[in-house]
């Protein structure tokens, strides 16, 4: 497991604590997930990002690393110069193009790609952007809420009222994604939603190695631990305790002021 911690602090008006953890799980011999967190150290925003790679010969690991680097760099270079939704759309597009170019240059990596979910925060406003089935959640006094909607074939069936959410949870094709970065599909356009980030709210980003094995009530309990570093670590440990069938990533963000 590797762990990250950052804090965005504007005295008296805003404090956001962010902790992330990433682990191969118990069934995989390498880790194709990648995460990053960036505090607002004068750049005007804070950022959290989770990518879940796919592809043979460790290509998924390359894809997720390229996506994290490309998106975080593009946002840093262009924040404040481009409207936020367009900034995120272009960052995802650049990442998808870069992954596909890498696959063209390396035949063993053909078809590599990754899912991606991020939160970009500007003071008390956040933008959630994603492509694929990596997820964003919010935990408040009212409960736990999924902020993202999976880009999967099965979720499309749910949206069309062809199957129920309960059927979707055990559907044999529930892992078949309909959007991702790279993979030669040119289907990486993100869905983007904007939310308020009130004091006392917890946010979480995760790969499906976490959300597939832990129910919402357990996620809510673990996200709400007293310290965000403990929350991230215990989420990983709980997913491994449930079998750890896939790589596992979690980033917890808490607004304490």
Automatic annotation (TrEMBL):
CDD domains: PP2Cc. Keywords: Hydrolase. Residues 15-255 form the PPM-type phosphatase domain. Coiled coil: none annotated. SUPFAM superfamilies: PP2C-like. GO terms for molecular function: protein serine/threonine phosphatase activity. SMART domains: PP2C_SIG, PP2Cc. The keyword Hydrolase applies. Gene3D superfamilies: PPM-type phosphatase domain (3.60.40.10). InterPro entries: PP2C (IPR015655), PPM-type-like_dom_sf (IPR036457), PPM-type_phosphatase-like_dom (IPR001932). Its EC number is 3.1.3.16. This is Serine/threonine phosphatase stp. It comes from Enhygromyxa salina. The lineage of its organism: Bacteria, Pseudomonadati, Myxococcota, Polyangia, Nannocystales.
